[in-house]
Amino acid sequence: MEISLLERIFLESIQRLRDERSDRSLYHVFQGKKSATSLQDAHFYDLESTFGTVLVSKQRFESVLTELAQKKWIERQETLRLTSEGARLVGQTDGVIIDQLGGELRGYAEMMWKRLSLLVQTVICLEAQQPFIPVQQETIVREWVKSVLPTISNRADWLAQMYQELTLLLERLPERDATLISHRLSGVQTGWSYPQLARMMKVDVETVQFEFIIAWRRCINDLKSTPLIQQIGAGLHTPKMTQSAQTTWELLQQGLTVEDVAVRRRLKNSTMEDHLVEIAMYAPTFPLDLFVDTAQQEEIRHIAQQLKTYALKRIKSAMQSDVSYFQIRLVLARSKWEGS
Q: Comparing C-alpha atoms, which of 103, 82, 101 is closest to residue 3?
């Protein structure tokens, strides 16, 4: 039985959840919900790449899960898990699709495309003295393009360099990926819509949308040799940490204690703990020893590896020493940095 691209994304993601998280948890990761639980799920279960990139409606999400269950590829109970047939399907495909979606970039790829596509269209049409309907309608994108246009002193030279750089990037890609990107770009003529591309490539619209996301992510993976395109993404890199947790981290780095920060920012204890877990997940350095002693750290890591789990209750119940759920979360969060 043939498997669609979206079904494959679902199956690969469910496999990584290890039969430990619910359908609701997966939906929130796909939607990019910036709650402590969803950020933690994405980090622990290696689903950062899917975070905020599988933007299907709740109804579509439910229908895909229902179809997968009917095909006996997954089982839906309190948690999601693959059946043996589902695992076989994931195992027989070449490479992993979900790691190419770019969710770890937190919207960088999407905004990069919006900027590039509108800027290219605008410069081409101005040079040709042709009226046009902007391919991107978001105010933030249009204002950015307006701010950049005065810096382009010679439009013809700029277009020639842009053509060279885009050609260089597209030549690195498989032909199908290059076709998707080049056909989506607009000039005097509007770029192809997803339905048009889907008809040409003989796939459904949903598939071509995710194929484009993956193609564009590959395209901008290395921009060192394309300075003009690299410049378009300047200032777009968004930290994985939420703004509130980032503020907490900055205050801690200034020398304030956890208690000082909580009082100054009027944070509940649970919120402060969530911020510390976020900091442990994303900050290059974190003083883990201040919160969990070395022996307990080792015990938590050992049990998590032995049981092959990130389920906090399972780890806590197997512990000999007395640790809190917060301490377990901190150790697991930091384990990604420490390669364990």
A: 82
How much of the chain, in percent, has pLDDT values that exceed 70?
99
| CATH architecture of the domain with range 5-103 | Orthogonal Bundle (1.10)
Return the DSSP state at 76.
E
Which two structure tokens, joined as six digits, stand for 208?
């071509």
pTM for the full predicted model: 0.91
Q: In the chain, where are the structural domains located?
A: 5-103, 108-232, 240-285, 287-340
Q: How far apart are CA 274 and CA 4, in angstroms?
A: 37
3-state SS, residue 82: strand
Distance CA 115, CA 233 (A): 8
The separation between CA 118 and the C-alpha centre of its own chain, rounded to angstroms, equals 23
Quickly state the pLDDT bin for 339 (edges 50, 70, 90). low
- Compute the radius of gyration of the chain from its Cα atoms: 23
**pLDDT tens figures, 29-82:** 999 999 999 999 999 999 999 999 999 999 999 999 999 999 999 999 999 999
Which one, of 101, 120, 314, 310, lies nearest residue 209 by Cα?
101
**Cβ atoms of 327 and 291 closer than 8 Å:** yes
Q: Which residues contact 100 (CB under 8 A, 6 or more apart)?
A: 49, 214, 217, 218
Contact 217, 99 (CB under 8 A): no
Q: Which of 333, 239, 324, 323 is nearest to 277 (CA)?
A: 333
